[in-house]
């Protein structure tokens, strides 16, 4: 862990922390200096003594089995289900907080968990209590592979299916049929009511990975840094990568034009660098969300003639969320319009003040056209890499991540993979995502056949049974029979996942208090989108005032414009809530948010945001009103009728438009009006609602400025009972 990271964790500036280190005669050269694990532990323990905050570090791993320092992963909720994560720290309520149906919010503790007529019978396969954690909660562990259908769960609990359905309906307010599959959160809730604690069986992958986890006995050696370029469109990522490849790879002993495999290595006198050619920050975050942390350093490319643009900030936030060090490449300095000073000032304004201006960010002027500054940039990358002291175990079976994969006509499935640990050898049997196979041939980035690939080395492999996905993990399995078994089980798992269970993974404001109480989160992550820059600042200012020593709001990303899918992906990866002020989510984002279960809240008034967030943080009450989207109509023609005033001749594109609903008028992605619907008409008749695919006339109360091309979104307002702490 480095000085600035620990400082951030402790809520200090790097300068303050350096001063404290100095007081204790602990040597640290600057904010980038690496700290001894014992030092980190010391500071964290002191904090614990002071504040009671556990000795845990957000998002960072302290790699040592010996130290008592625990790791907390901010985005880890998805991978680690409540019940297995920490039964002792996540008691009853934490589990019950994750039920999808908002109606469940009104459930009180006083309601007994076991329905009157549904008496639990002894389960068929209850395991013996094995852990001290289990003893504390008084629940018996029961292994259930989730998702599981209602029918199978009933069988497991030796109860009648109809009784389980009744229980789900009465107690969890879930309507489920017997073939409905239930997510682990719901299963955990059911089990708890019957005196059991959900224990998930180990996944085949995990078993193998556990065996493969590098131990102390392994031989750890240095490895080269893996670098990703990110930035605004057209700022020159591809050109820079090309320039580096042309000048550096072609210069190397092999010469000639190189083959593009989505990643390549550059050899320099001081060391090697692996460049990943990912298509953008969304891919970067999507990979990270799947646990494929394939990047050590991000180079943020900003064109010096254009300056910082929305996607620059987006890329920066994605890199920041990943906790990856950032180097800025100020590109296109050959252009007469390039203004490096202006760019440095802008960088300062977003928290990336360059070193030569007194800041901490390495910012290098480059030109992908003339090659100026490229050597310096590479040098800086290597310098940063040295600070990171990147290491990997070598003498073990290889594992890593798939960068890209495709089906080749002549060669079958071809995957570019990045070895992260161990040495991959020709003939190794590998599992990659849902595919497996023996490595038939391997090629380096120059398309030369090789027999071995070392950590940090990108290679193209052939021989897999099918095409894996980018971000999939791969690993070598010695026992081929076992490997096939694992792949079969994984495919079965995939099949079950596709059953799309009723589930809930992400944080909703309503759950916040319980999560805080359970010690699961201490920070409410927010992604903020607004129609204008001024509002962003005002909202962030007011949000910053809410936090207490116990809980805080952290704005992970903010930007002007509609909520897009990149925001949703970031929210997914960082377990954030999205807040829109005078903006709506675009269709893609809405769909993705629904799929990933991301909470998107839109507001018209700043103090409502403030109030909701404050209430949420205090854990006093859930927001009282919830807007449920029910449909969208596109305005095709606007009429004026003598009796009814302005009527929007519309076509219902999605869902339905109901007379009783609340309406929002959306123009160019921005909400310009919200209010009641006055009437919905089919031809001349007033109707209660109009369904998808039909035309209708809509008039709104107190709003006549409707235009062709506007959208009218209909919402049903749901009142949710207040919950007290
Ligand atoms: N003059 C000048 N032009 C550059 C430089 N770098 C890139 N360009 C030009 O800028 C344009 C965009 O460059 P790309 O490399 O495609 O930009 P990109 O960031 O990869 O763009 P996307 O992949 O679309 O996100 C191209 O026309 C390049 O020729 C540079 O240093 N100087």
From TrEMBL:
Residues 63-132 are annotated as: Disordered. Residues 76-85, 107-119 have a biased composition (Basic and acidic residues). GTP binds at residues 231-238, 277-281, 331-334. Keywords: Cytoplasm, GTP-binding, Initiation factor, Nucleotide-binding, Protein biosynthesis. Pfam families: EF-G_D2 (PF22042), GTP_EFTU (PF00009), IF-2 (PF11987), IF2_N (PF04760). GO terms for cellular component: cytosol. Residues 86-98, 120-132 have a biased composition (Low complexity). It is found in: Cytoplasm. One of its GO terms (molecular function) is translation initiation factor activity. SUPFAM superfamilies: Initiation factor IF2/eIF5b, domain 3, P-loop containing nucleoside triphosphate hydrolases, Translation proteins. Residues 225-373 are annotated as: G-domain. Its main location: cytoplasm. PROSITE patterns: G_TR_2. It comes from the Bacteria. Residues 222-391 form the Tr-type G domain. The keyword GTP-binding applies. Belongs to the TRAFAC class translation factor GTPase superfamily. Classic translation factor GTPase family. IF-2 subfamily. One of the essential components for the initiation of protein synthesis. Protects formylmethionyl-tRNA from spontaneous hydrolysis and promotes its binding to the 30S ribosomal subunits. Also involved in the hydrolysis of GTP during the formation of the 70S ribosomal complex. This is Translation initiation factor IF-2. The gene is infB.
């Amino acid at each position: 862990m480095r000085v600035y990271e620990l400082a951030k964790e402790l809520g200090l500036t790097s300068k303050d922390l350096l001063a404290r280190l100095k007081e204790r005669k602990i040597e640290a050269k600057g904010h980038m200096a690496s700290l001894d694990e014992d030092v980190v532990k010391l500071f964290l323990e002191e904090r614990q003594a002071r504040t009671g905050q556990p000795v845990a570090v957000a998002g960072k791993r302290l790699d040592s089995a010996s130290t008592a320092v625990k790791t907390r992963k901010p985005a880890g909720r998805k991978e680690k289900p409540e019940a297995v994560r920490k039964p002792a720290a996540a008691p009853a309520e934490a589990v019950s907080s994750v039920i999808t149906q908002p109606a469940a919010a009104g459930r009180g503790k006083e309601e007994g968990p076991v329905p009157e007529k549904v008496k639990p019978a002894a389960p068929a396969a209850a395991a013996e209590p094995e852990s001290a954690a289990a003893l504390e909660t008084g629940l018996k562990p029961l292994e259930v592979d989730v998702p599981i259908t209602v029918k199978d769960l009933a069988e497991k609990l030796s109860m009648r299916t109809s009784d389980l359905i009744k229980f789900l309906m009465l107690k969890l307010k879930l309507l489920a049929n017997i073939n409905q599959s239930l997510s682990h959160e719901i299963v955990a809730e059911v089990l708890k009511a019957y005196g059991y604690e959900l224990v998930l069986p180990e996944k085949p992958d995990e078993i193998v990975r556990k065996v493969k986890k590098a131990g102390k006995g392994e031989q750890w050696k240095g490895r080269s840094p893996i670098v990703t370029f990110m930035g605004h469109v057209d700022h020159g990522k591809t050109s820079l990568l090309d320039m580096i490849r042309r000048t550096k790879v072609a210069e190397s002993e092999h010469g000639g034009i190189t083959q593009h495999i989505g990643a390549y290595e550059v050899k320099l006198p001081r060391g090697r660098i692996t460049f990943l050619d990912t298509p953008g920050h969304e891919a970067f975050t999507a990979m990270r969300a799947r646990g494929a942390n394939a990047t050590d350093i991000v180079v943020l490319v900003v064109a010096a003639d254009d300056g910082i643009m929305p996607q620059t900030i987006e890329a920066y936030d994605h890199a920041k969320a990943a906790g990856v060090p950032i180097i800025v490449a100020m590109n296109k300095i050959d252009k007469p319009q390039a203004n490096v000073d202006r760019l440095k000032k802008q960088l300062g304004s977003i928290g990336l003040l360059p070193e030569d201006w007194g800041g901490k960010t390495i910012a290098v002027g480059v030109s992908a056209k003339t090659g100026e500054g490229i050597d310096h940039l590479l040098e800086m990358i290597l310098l940063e890499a040295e600070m990171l002291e990147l290491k990997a175990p070598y003498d073990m079976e290889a594992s890593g991540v798939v960068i890209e994969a495709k089906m080749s006509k002549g060669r079958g499935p071809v995957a570019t993979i990045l070895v992260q640990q161990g040495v991959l050898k020709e003939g190794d049997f590998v599992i990659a995502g849902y595919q497996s196979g023996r490595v038939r041939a391997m090629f380096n980035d120059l398309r030369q056949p090789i027999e071995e690939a070392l950590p940090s080395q990108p290679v193209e492999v052939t021989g897999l049974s099918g095409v894996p996905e980018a971000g999939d993990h791969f690993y070598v399995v010695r026992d081929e029979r076992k490997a096939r078994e694992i792949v079969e089980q994984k495919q079965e798992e995939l099949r079950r996942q596709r059953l799309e269970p009723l589930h809930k993974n992400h944080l909703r404001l309503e759950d916040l208090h319980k999560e805080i109480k359970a010690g699961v989160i201490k920070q409410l992550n927010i992604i903020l989108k607004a129609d204008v820059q001024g509002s962003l600042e005002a909202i962030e200012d007011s949000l910053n005032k809410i936090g207490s020593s116990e809980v805080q709001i952290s704005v992970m990303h903010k930007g002007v414009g509609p909520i897009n899918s990149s925001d949703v992906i970031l929210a997914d990866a960082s377990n954030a809530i999205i807040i829109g002020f005078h903006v709506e989510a675009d269709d893609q984002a809405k769909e993705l948010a629904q799929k990933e279960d991301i909470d998107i809240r839109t507001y018209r008034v700043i103090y409502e945001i403030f109030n909701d967030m404050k209430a949420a943080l205090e854990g006093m009450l859930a927001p009282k009103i919830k807007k449920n989207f029910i449909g969208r109509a596109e305005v095709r023609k606007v009429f004026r009728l003598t009796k009814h005033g302005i009527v929007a001749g519309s076509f219902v594109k999605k869902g339905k438009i109901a007379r009783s609903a609340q309406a929002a008028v959306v123009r160019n992605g921005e909400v310009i009006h919200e209010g009641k619907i006055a009437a919905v008409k089919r031809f001349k008749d007033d109707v209660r609602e109009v369904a998808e695919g039909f035309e209708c006339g809509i008039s709104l109360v107190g709003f006549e400025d409707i235009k062709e091309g506007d959208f009218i979104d209909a919402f049903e307002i749901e009142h949710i009972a207040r919950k007290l702490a």
